[in-house]
Structures are given as structure tokens and as C-alpha cells.
């Protein structure tokens, strides 16, 4: 594919290889393999053998070979200090040397039993969750599930040997000579993975989801938009819209898991998802910075821009995804038939625990009060989301962010937030930090989606929907099947792993009652109290 670049982009483009999207889709099918080796040379090491200093020997087992020329790969340089110790340099974001955080690379040609110390020596940040027990992730060809390296093997300190930089050192023992080992800052989530995921959803031909491309990135990658809603809603005169964006910061991979959790839930057959689709139009731009994601950047686009500082005046040539998304939002804001109720931008945080939100400050007390309702509700639904960690501000430094810019230019009813989730862990009720897994990030996404049920006070409709479904089932099959139906519903419940400790389904004649809220959780919303009372009184 040929790509035309303006003068300003040429320099950046010349160092990069640009892949064809369809080719990437094909390649992405292979990404399920333990190590994804699509070539993306952007100053990363490419099958680089770190010979011991002064060594004249030929390549032999134990001379580690480092590689990061693949999608979202990042490792810029390796210095072999001794047979046991290597200094590793994060490759700075393209065209912006200020950001050096994300790493993702493979190591092979290892000796069984070989013990090494890797020092990552050029982080651009000083504060880090490594101080709180975070550790790098590892997987290998024969063990393709990501695991955290034990925190006791990880050290974060100011190093006199490295210009007093903060260095993260970790000890690791290789055990299988034939394995390729991969180390990463956090769970990778590549552009190809997203494209494959969207393709799989498209193949289902569901009438309540539409996937379209709103523009192309500078490197001609898709900026996708998903619209999830019951088809009849699009014909209705009045529409309620909830809008999500993610991955404006390419290294913040947890935001993609949260985003996928939202999508998984909304396209599912879960009764709550059905009710949500019946009442709300969900629109999602899952990857605002695909070039940065492919390149293995932490924060910037191809040209070194932090795209989350350009919402005020996005440029068509440098920030096309921000321009297209903002235009879409502004058009909806002008449309009298659309209530654009929410804009939520998904991020990950490198120094804080939990999920939490940044919101805006409004002078009018009522508006400010309304603005805190959704985060409070989410806090009651998700054990890893903290309302107390959430903050509402109008810092000058954040003026160009989506949350701040849209918060000031959309109409009064629109609530604009940044949702952050820790790169590492959350404090659950037990007050022991729980490291996030991929599943835990997906679960937060599901809780983000289902909280709109509480916000829009749609809880009672879920019971009706269940009643309706079971009655239909009853008509179609004999009574013996009802228990199967109940089991099916319970299966869906446990599959989605909702954060509801008590789900009571009783099939007694034609009545189905459902308790949606954990009775132990203090109610935070008047509607919840009323609904709970209603559910309780309607039971038996
Ligand atoms: Zn961010």
C-alpha cells in the first residue's frame, strides 16, 4: 500500500515500515501464538545477540538473542555487562524522547538453568508501582499465559552506575532451551488483536452492532467506531448516547481490556445487556492511536504528539483520529434528537492503584452533584473501583484532554470523564493489594457497562425481560425445560462474573424475581433504594 505523507511527516515515516491492513489482519491470526513476530522495526533491537564484551566466540547457547521488531515491541538497546547481567534500554517514543516506559521484547537462545539480571536503566519516570510490588510480566512458547515475575526478584532504585537514574532490576532463571521468552511492562494488546476481535464480532452478523471506520490514522490504520444498540433505537426520534474512547495513550494496554470488557458485555445475550441496548445507544472508538500502539510507544503518536493534549484544536494531518471523534461528538451535540449523556475516555495509570475517575468541576451545585452519580454507582458495582480515589478538577495542564475539552464544549447534560485503571493492582475489601489480571480488567469493563442500568434506573426492566424470556421458553417447550432455562441464565450470570454477590432467580408460576444489588452494599442512589424495596416487596 502506498502512503502519502505531508512534508512534516516524511522524516518520521522514513524510519518506519508501513504494513498493509489486510496483511495485518492475516498476520493477526497468527498472533494467538505465544510470541507474535510481525516485523515493526522502529529502532528496536532485531535478533540482536548480546555477546559478552571482548568475546570472539561464535554464537553458542547462552548468548542471549534479544528481539523487539514486532507489533507493540519495544527494546532499543542491550549492553552485556557480564554473562549474568544485561543493561536494557527502552526505546523512546517515536519523535519524542521524553517518554520511555513501555517495554516488550523476546529473549531466546538461552541455556537451561541460566540465571540473569536484567536492568532496565532509562525509564523516564521516577515514581513507579515497582515500589509497591509491581513486577514485569513473562510468558514463553511452552507457557503462553502471562505471569508476573515474583516481586521478591524485582528491585527499583536510584542507581549510581546509571547517572542516578531510576533502574528496575529483575532476576530471572531460564529453564527451557527451546523456548522463546517474552517480557513486557504490562499485558500487551495490539492493533492486530483489536482488528481480529472486531472481525469476529462482525462475522456474527448481529443486528444490534455496527462497525465502521471513521477515518484513517497517519499511517493509514483504521480508526474504528462501534455502535451498539437495538435497531429500533436508531429509528426513534430521541436517542440517548453513551460514548467511549480508549487507547489514546498506546502503552496503556489495560484500557483496551476494559474496553473489550464493555463491548463483550454489551453484545452478549445477558438480560441486562439486552435492556441496555433497548434504551441506550453505545458508541465506542476502541483505539484512538493505533500507530502508537503498533510502534510500541508509551504515550505518543507516530509524530511524537500526546494526542490527549490536542482536543481543543486537533489538526487533520497530525491528529486525524481526535479531529474525527471530536467532530462526531460535536455533531451529535448539535442534534436535537440526541442526548449525548456520557463521554468516557479509558486510560491506565502507572503510579496509582484501583480503577478511578477524573471528572470536571462545575460551578452549579446541582450539575456537580449529578456529575458524581455515575462514579458513585460504579463504586458500588465494582470492587476494584474507588470513588474516594476519583477526583474532579480543572488543572491547566489537563486543558487539552478529551475530558476537559469536551466537558466545556458539550451541552450541560453531558458528563465527561477519564476512567483510569492501575497498571498493577487494586485494593479489594480485604485491603490486600490484588494484582490485576487480564480477566480482572475485562471484568471492570463489564461493570462499567452494567452500571448504566442503575444510572438510568432500568433495573425493573431486567426482571420483566427475564419473565418475558422464560414465558416464551415455557410456551415453546414443556415445563421440564424451565429448570434448564434457569440454569442457562445462571450460566450466563457466572460467565459474565458480575460483581453481584447475591442473584436470586425464582421461577414460581409466572413470577421471576431478581435481586440486582448486593444487600450489604450501602445504597448510594435514591432510585436504588426504591428499586430494592420494590424487588423485595414483589418477591413472594
Ligand atoms: Zn493515559
Structural account:
The protein has 540 residues and is α+β, with helices and mostly antiparallel strands. The protein folds into three domains: 36-184, Immunoglobulin-like, CATH 2.60.40; 191-455, Aminopeptidase (3-Layer(aba) Sandwich); 459-538, no CATH class. It has 15 helices and 23 strands. The chain has helices at residues 7-14, 21-28, 191-203, 231-235, 254-266, 271-279, 290-295, 320-334, 365-371, 373-381, 402-409, 438-455, 459-476, 480-496, 526-538; strands at 48-49, 65-67, 77-82, 85-89, 104-108, 115-120, 137-140, 143-148, 154-158, 166-173, 181-184, 209-216, 222-228, 239-246, 281-285, 338-349, 355-359, 391-392, 415-422, 425-427, 433-435, 506-508, 511-513. The strands form five sheets. It has an eight-stranded mixed β-sheet, sandwiched between helices. A six-stranded antiparallel β-sheet has the order 1-2-5-11-7-8, with no helix packed on it. The protein has a five-stranded mixed β-sheet with strand order 3-4-6-10-9, with no helix packed on it. The radius of gyration is 25 Å and the shape is elongated. Residues 249, 252, 347 line the site of zinc ion.
SS elements, strand count? 23
% residues in beta strands = 15-25%
Biggest pleated sheet? 8 strands, mixed
Could you tell me the radius of gyration in angstroms? 25 Å
What is the top-level CATH class of the largest domain?
A: Alpha Beta
